[in-house]
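Reopening: structure tokens for the MF3 complex, inputs below.
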Amino acid sequence: MAVTIKSEREIELMRESGRILSIVHTELAAMIRPGISTLDIDKKCREIIRDFGCIPSFLNYEGYPASVCVSVNEEVVHGIPKKNHIIKEGDIVSLDAGVIYKGYHSDAARTIAVGEIKPEYKKLIDVTKQAFFEGIKFAKPGYRIGDISGAIQDYAESFGFSLVRELVGHGVGSALHEDPQVPNFRTKQKGMRLEPGMTLAVEPMVNFGKPDVLWLDDDWTVITADGLPSAHYENTILITEGEPELFTIERK
Ligand code: MF3
Ligand code: CO
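Re-run output (same inputs, fresh job):
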């Protein structure tokens, strides 16, 4: 599949999709506390998205059974919400959700600390978020996908953390996953040149320890092989003539 350059109309729909998703994330973050189940988060997510007249983009995506991926501690991504998975003080909780508005997807993830967490895990969360911002310094015409990837990698590794190899960022638009892939690490090829109108989900997944991951028997949940925590931060962005526009960040 080729990379699509979005029209003004498509960009406007993605902007609205992203605006709604940023509100979803704000509301979900506000409900995270010890004692709630990961299924409670999913119910709330589905309700908010439907109240906006939108569709939860992950629900039934390739059989995924929920509206939000809730990945706790050593879970990297795609954690399936469960009634008996109770959030506790000291957890780090990654929430990844997607919204479809009039056929257009937005995709974003946040990692949230539950109460008091170990300072080194707070650092992991902060570095993962900042790795995204380091990466998108190169999200403009004149650079390539690989420049974003390299900046994310260099920043996260400079703190001794590691980047997951098996999962990558991606184009996003009328489908949740479009070309091109956006790795969080350098690859042999530098990747395509960035052009105005491209829309990308840039999403560093950063492990506290080693980069290796495993899949649980549910065929979704990705965990770190060493059992140490992992953090995730993602936004849907638009390449413009200048600085990228971030669709999934709440604007004041
Ligand atoms: N947000 C994920 C991504 O960035 C997609 C989740 S897959 C799903 O690629 F099945 F959970 F939807
Ligand atoms: Co994504």
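The domain at 8-246 is CATH 3.90.230.10 (Creatine Amidinohydrolase). The chain has a mean pLDDT of 98. Marking as resolved unless the reporter disagrees.
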